[in-house]
Amino acid sequence: MAVIEVNDATKTYRRRRRPPQKALDGLDLHVAEGGVHGFLGPNGSGKTTTIRALLGLVRADSGELRLLGRPVPRDLPQVVGGVGALVETPLFFPTFSGRLNLQLLAETAGVSRVRVEECLELVDLQDRAEDRFKGYSLGMKQRLGIAAALLKSPRLLVLDEPSNGLDPAGIRDVRELIRRLGADGSTTVFLSSHLLAEVEQVCDRVSILARGKCVATGPVHEVLAGRATGEVRLRAPDLAGARAVLEGAGYAVTPVDGALRVQGVTAPAELTRLLADQGHYLEELSPVAADLESAFLELTEDTP
Predict the structure, then answer these.
(1) Residue 220 has what DSSP assignment?
(2) Average predicted confidence (pLDDT) for the chain
(3) Overall average pLDDT of the 270-295 stretch
(4) What is the rounded end-to-end Cα distance, in angstroms, of the chain?
(5) How would you label 107-137 residue by residue, b for 16+ Cβ within 10 Å and e otherwise?
């Protein structure tokens, strides 16, 4: 089952004294239930507009949008209870404790205090629950915001740039939290992020946007598959000698962890022949797989 469906959505913003800005241009997006789905795109690609349209904060000009199988914004009141979201910096009472802030939100939403304690445990804030919110680090504030979004045990959790502005320790904590939530199985996490390494490490699937269109979607390993880097890794008994042969033939060669990384390779078999002719026989020859950053740049730069 799909928790998010977007079909042929368009959205154009009218601007005074400037040409209209097309934020969504026939966007198609499908997010299956379960795991963590990454949502990537450069600034201006339409990520924020997509999230805001799904949550009923803006209305698409045309197209069909569905959350948990129901059309939005028409049926949003029927499904909003199954959706948790953190789309901006969380706002809490600064002089209240983290626990009291959550308890007030829970009371408003008709959620038990038992669930408050469960959410504090989920985000690893039990030990700091009685501290005032204003004394929290930015990472702790983000985790409390995620706890608030989890109060109603949502089937879908939407996180818009949850690691934005965090230091490395905060990024690590949020990353581990997202990984745990995705592995739990009861909540699908829809993660919008500009941190490509974060998405590559925690997401099961990914959708990449460029200029209001989805240019790639699927499991992370499939999006990366087939995107040749033009680089290979090789090992031989005499690395120095093999390097000299390759550089003499015009290849760019870099020693890496007891092997050689060769750039600009179009036919790996040519390297085997070239080295064998000089008495160097390979112990390893493997293509260097593309990473998400390479795929992201290739896909978004090629979009018309």
Answers:
(1) H
(2) 89
(3) 82
(4) 32
(5) eeeebeeebbeebbebbebeebbeebbeebe
Gap between the Cα atoms of 139 and 136, Å rounded: 8
- For 112-124, what is the mean pLDDT? 95
Rounded Cα distance between 59 and 49, Å, is 9
Claim: this prediction has a pTM higher than 0.85: no
pLDDT tens readout for residues 209-242? 988 999 889 998 777 665 555 788 899 999 999 9
Q: How far is CA 40 from CA 145, 231, 248, in A?
A: 21, 25, 41
Q: Which two tokens stand for residue 180?
A: 């745990």
**Amino acid identity, position 268:** P
Q: Identity (one letter) of the amino acid at 84?
A: G
